[in-house]
Amino acid sequence: MASKAILIATIFCIGAIAPALATEYMVGDDSGWKTGYNYTEWVKGKNFYVGDKLTFMYKKDAHNVAKVNGSEFQQCLGPSVTNSSNLLTSGNDVITLGTTGKKWYICTFPDHCTQGMKLVISVSANGPSPAPAPGTSGATQVSALKSSGWILAALAAFKMIMA
After folding, report:
1. Residue span of the signal peptide, if any (predicted)?
2. Which residues, 6+ apart, have CB-to-CB distance to 33 below 8 Å?
3. Is 0.90 topped by the overall pTM?
């Protein structure tokens, strides 16, 4: 019975580790998604990785978020009618970055994109490694994912021994 409790606790801990590695960004920080804001400046110094989340906060029915391609972004053109699934309108849109590469977002309300409601980011595959603990070298650090694998292997072995 105790081994089941340990297994459940370990699975819970591993589930808590993975999401903690992702970063959630509020686009525009406290300003949110609006005209007249410099999103190019907002992106500077930020690194986006697969698994991170972008939250677009704005007044519903006054703005939207359209996922577009590079050409549409440059021309401030919203997605075509056949691709309207890329149009978000809730006022609190959360996008999980699922693939690497450039991602483009605009507001399709008249003149909003030309007034600055456009965002382009580059998404990388892996997040940065955690910094080594003070007084240790990076060579001795073990990733959370690798640690989780070792924990699961140890628990499986423990379960087989106890059976």
Report:
1. 1-22
2. 27, 56, 57, 58, 63, 65, 107, 117
3. no
